[in-house]
Amino acid sequence: MIEKIEGIVIRSVDYGESNKIITIFSRNKGKFGAVAKGAKKPKSRLASVSQPFTYGHFVCMMGNSGLATIQQGEIIDTFRGIKEDLFLTSYVSYIAELLEKGTEDRVNNPYLFELFYQTIKAIEEGHDPEILKNIFEVKMLPVFGFRPTLDHCAICGNSNGHFVFSIKEGGILCENCSHQDPYSLKVQQVTLKLLRLFYHFDLSRLGSINVKDKTKNELELCINAYYDEYSGLYLKTKRFLQQLDKLKDT
């Protein structure tokens, strides 16, 4: 069956002498793989639409399973500003890989499509890519089946006072319960408030966010520790991104 599908290319790999296999995350079909025949040839009509992060309408021959075949494509946005910047490309590559790892093939999820699109659009518009990465990571937690307790103490339910972040208990702990985890992360309260905000708020309402470096470091600490403990994920793009960040700081 031939279908016209709105989606964004999240991965593209060479296949044979002239073809590519691309992974598209679509608005109404979820994630699926497709062959773009002849896309490696510079003059191919599929060369541009098979590039990573290309947002467009794809005319595909879809079967019940296996790879689809791209017949043609119409570009909506190339996110050129991201592709021309190595650091931004690295952030979006990581976000795309996290999305790919967290989803099954052909499972419809318009919310995730919109979240991914809004995230990379905001990055291209000049919003802080580190914070947008953190927002996406936090919003992906329920997709992986994780629901950290961020609104109240994970042990007693208290929602007032000073809190710490506990990986062991899967969320925040109040002063009365913090002794239950001697290895809890003693971070600023603003860091915990941002984690809570990232978890709940609608990204389409994103305004200007100015976060201090210390708070950014604490956000990274909490999010990385939580993913390391519960997800078991190993993402090549994350390691590359961390290496780039080290170079940027030198």
TrEMBL record:
Keyword hit for DNA damage: yes
UniProt-listed InterPro entries: ARFGAP/RecO, DNA_rep/recomb_RecO_N, NA-bd_OB-fold, RecO, RecO_C
Pfam family, one: RecO_N
Record keyword Transport present: no
UniProt domain DNA replication/recombination mediator RecO N-terminal: residue ranges: 1-79
Coiled-coil region: none
Keywords: DNA damage, DNA recombination, DNA repair
Protein role: Involved in DNA repair and RecF pathway recombination.
Family: Belongs to the RecO family.
Protein name as catalogued: DNA repair protein RecO
